[in-house]
Amino acid sequence: MENEGLKTSPRCNLHCPVPSSVLSSVPYSYCQPRCARTLKIWSHVARGTTFRYTYLHSASRSLSPLHQPMEARIFRLWAGRILRLCTRRSSGAPAPGSGATIFALSSGQGRCGIAVIRTSGPASGHALRILTAPRDLPPARHASLRLLSDPRSGEPLDRALVLWFPGPQSFTGEDCVEFHVHGGPAVVSGVLQALGSVPGLRPAEAGEFTRRAFANGKLNLTEVEGLADLIHAETEAQRRQALRQLDGELGHLCRGWAETLTKALAHVEAYIDFGEDDNLEEGVLEQADIEVRALEVALGAHLRDARRGQRLRSGAHVVVTGPPNAGKSSLVNLLSRKPVSIVSPEPGTTRDVLETPVDLAGFPVLLSDTAGLREGVGPVEQEGVRRARESCNFLATVVASVGAQSPSDSSQRLLLVLNKSDLLSPEGPGPGPDLPPHLLLSCLTGEGLDGFLEALRKELAAVCGDPSTDPPLLTRARHQHHLQGCLDALGHYKQSKDLALAAEALRVARGHLTRLTGGGGTEEILDIIFRDFCVGK
Amino acid sequence: MFYFRGCGRWVAASFTKQQFPLARLSSDSAAPRTPHFDVIVIGGGHAGTEAATAAARCGSRTLLLTHRVDTIGQMSCNPSFGGIGKGHLMREVDALDGLCSRICDQSGVHYKVLNRRKGPAVWGLRAQIDRKLYKQNMQKEILNTPLLTVQEGAVEDLILTEPEPEHIGKCRVSGVVLVDGSTVYAESVILTTGTFLRGMIVIGLETHPAGRLGDQPSIGLAQTLEKLGFVVGRLKTGTPPRIAKESINFSILNKHTPDNPSIPFSFTNETVWIKPEDQLPCYLTHTNPKVDEIVLKNLHLNSHVKETTRGPRYCPSIESKVLRFPNRLHQVWLEPEGMDSDLIYPQGLSMTLPAELQEKMITCIRGLEKAKVIQPDGVLLLLPRMECNGAISSHHNLPLPGYGVQYDYLDPRQITPSLETHLVQRLFFAGQINGTTGYEEAAAQGVIAGINASLRVSRKPPFVVSRTEGYIGVLIDDLTTLGTSEPYRMFTSRVEFRLSLRPDNADSRLTLRGYKDAGCVSQQRYERACWMKSSLEEGISVLKSIEFSSSKWKNLIPEASISTSRSLPVRALDVLKYEEVDMDSLAKAVPEPLKKYTKCRELAERLKIEATYESVLFHQLQEIKEVQQDEALQLPKDLDYLTIRDVSLSHEVREKLHFSRPQTIGAASRIPGVTPAAIINLLRFVKTTQRRQAAMNESSKTDQYLCDADRLQEREL
Questions:
Q1: Kind and range of the H or E element at B188?
Q2: Backbone phi, then psi, for B67, in 5-degree steps?
Q3: Strand ranges (DSSP E) for B411-496?
Q4: Which residue of A has its CA nearest to B493?
Q5: pTM for this structure?
Q6: Facing residues of A181 across strands?
Q7: What interface predicted TM-score (ipTM) does this complex get?
Q8: A 406-465 → B contacts, CB under 8 A
């Protein structure tokens, strides 16, 4: 899996002028038994099967002192060769700084006070200007306070310190920008997504910053020593992360899309390479067109459904609902650690939806307390019940807090919490034999709170992505970048009348998807071609 | 058939007993006992002929050793050249001044460009070739090549000496031993023995060794190679039976006519030797369920299909087609073998059934109901047993069935991108011996091997074509880094930069390099390529500079579907992108300054193609640059991956690197299983080496200084 990244990615930017030589520190001649005058003939006696070895001169296999002058001569000859090689190479070293501009979260993952996001590459300055519009570039290498806003919506993201390092005096030797933003997952994710939407920018591959620095001669040897470990760690993390994602719903989707696309591409390629010589079935291209169109629709729908990203930025919505007097308001107060709602032993105390933003296990959450669900009460409380039901319809997570009754049917993510566990007699029967998986909690004593918080964290992680294992934030930017790239390329496929151009668009599209799923070699395409078609003379 | 010219020499088999009378005369050194050449090429097939002439063009005194001079240029399988992907290779061979494209322009009987409607990047130049003419023209060309000597003879063994210290390899080749025991010395040796290494012919359940005249000369060579430690694999291929032309009922078949006008293969030719109306048609027919039935009933009589040796998936025998895709009709192309040939080559019918069943199967096919299977010329040399009996040379109409060939190939991961072997210095492999299939793939490797064998002699750096420069580069890079488990054939889908590596621009990509770096290109061709390149560049910049509003363009060229909604001015180059616009219509609209670019038809067509791909090529150029940066990072050739301790690598990665010996970081990163971490470790190693070298340079300078001082003192004394 680690290798796939390198195989399909535009390869890392390396252009240090290493001589095109063949040399390690020890001249090869020293390693070889050698005597220049030895001539060995392997002569095959005509039509016979035996070999005759003729040594015209006997070979001395040891490096006797007698040989040393010759060794010295060869050494000198060899050293002269290096010199020639070096002078030849040094003139043709390519200029640094070509290629795409990359960005990544440089500080640690998870929740922290300040997060640092870096970009490197020629479009860095452009990206900075776009995010801090209408202000111009800050002075080089000075921290400046700027309001960052999303270039697509104009929505403010964060007030952040930005640093502008024009190349070559920067970490990588290219133009670099650092954004020091507030460390909340929502902010970080927002800025990363905003950067991803700037043309010419793409999320960095594992270790790409360091490789660029290395290529531009910005790292000394000791620093490079650590690089391999770093790359290993990063690719390892990426592999694990990819695995994790691939288990998920999104991974499943991506793999399906990549499969469809690979097949469509294979069929177009078969049509190009074998269409005239062989009898491919009718409608190969039409079939590919249909598949591409379907894929386009699916990708478009997925990209428009940016709810997960949105949730994290504005906070996931958690609604506490249930029958009256189950202790919903007590739970809300417990979670927010402040008296949001009035609590009383009387059912129907809460008559409206009360919302409060809280931080739950690192996730920004909008917590809603609702009126208890019951029929046949006054019009004010009825309206409260209606609003409670309504908010359940579009909210992400519902914490149903019930006394002992069964929960109502719901397709939301539901965490069933049975409150007032302190009222259950220790030896008595449980809260009901047919209840679905549930948690026991006592808002009064705090018993079961840890278990409940952990369960809630898991639910939130499923909805928002888990900030502590992050990559997700970065991953989300990566996903979005590549899915968008794929969709754009599919658009080019449709427009192209020239089939070679159309196939190229599919190749680009597939390249984007296989960055997320791995794979993507040519052999895969050929396998499909030969599996699906009877081609060849 | 005997050409004695001032520079081209032909030493016929009849007087080889006297050992190179002419060669000896020509060598002005003190008359050596044994002849000595710069380059020896073993094998006169498609790789061998290209290799020998390329080496000679580079200025090396070259000897071509072949079994029989009259089989040079033999097309042993299909009577056609080119096709999709293969046509690209031929253009590149031609750009390096190779032979096959020019010979095909003189020998074809049906020229047709495939994929005409799919975009110029994937056009496939193809032609049916007259076998006899091709052979004649090729032999004429070979025997007239300056510095090239041809000798008949079978090679038994290689002469090996101690290695040169500054290169890797456990020994160095310095000549060959022939079957009569005589020796020939040379600085470089190119092996292009095709399927002759332990070749085995299979018909039904019978097998025959495929050597010459009863003995197995190539077995001796094969044993030597194995003894040296070369890893050998086995592949199979096949050929169909040939059918008598007059026994086919063409009137009920689908007729396919050639292109009008014919497009030549070579950049140096404006047209081909034959008018379109004089060319021969091809015909198309299909198999039917009766064919399937015969195949399935007789599988037990067919050892070739059953065996595990890998055959190509893309050149399947009719048996494997029936087995893998049952209940389908398969195409059979009936192709002429030549102008005055009475044979038809049924492409798509390669088979290894016993002879009597082959005819039974063929007569089930529409149009072939009365077909007669005929002995062709082309397979003579592959059938030693029959030749031994003396039957073939006299009986021209002896029925000969289709047959399969199984042969040894050498794992191509054992050669460098210059086609020199890792194990034996100055020994080069080219063609089918490296596991490829097809004349064009062989020819492409031949040119590269010939050039590099010659450059090696003159101690110049190797000439390597990168993946970003040509199909030849893709072919050789795939072979040397990934190896192959089936006969390797070129497809355009193997090429990442397909839109940049087109048949139309092979000369701009390779001719200039071939002239400067290899010296294998004639002055005339070089000048033509330079003119074309600068004209194209000038034309494109002129087209970019002409800008009008879209409505003005619409008025100028009403037939183009230019949308007038855009308010920005439109460049002439963008207008040229429209399918219905070409340089002629553009020049009619804007005669000044565009008219002059329509005078050369090729230039006008190439400008149109450049315009078509302009926008994509910009992005591709960036990617190409990134790949080339990795290619520029060379790994030490003598690195011992298995033992080296300075580089931290997993055992698996070490073994992979050890076997493939990638020359650059780019090649290493393409080897499956080599991780990014391993690549970084290698990078670090390269960097360290570089430092040590810098230190070494200092010391060598001091050395040099001391030497000079010595000399000075001597003089003073």
A1: strand B183-191
A2: -60, -50
A3: 424-425, 427-429
A4: A269
A5: 0.71
A6: A115
A7: 0.81
A8: none
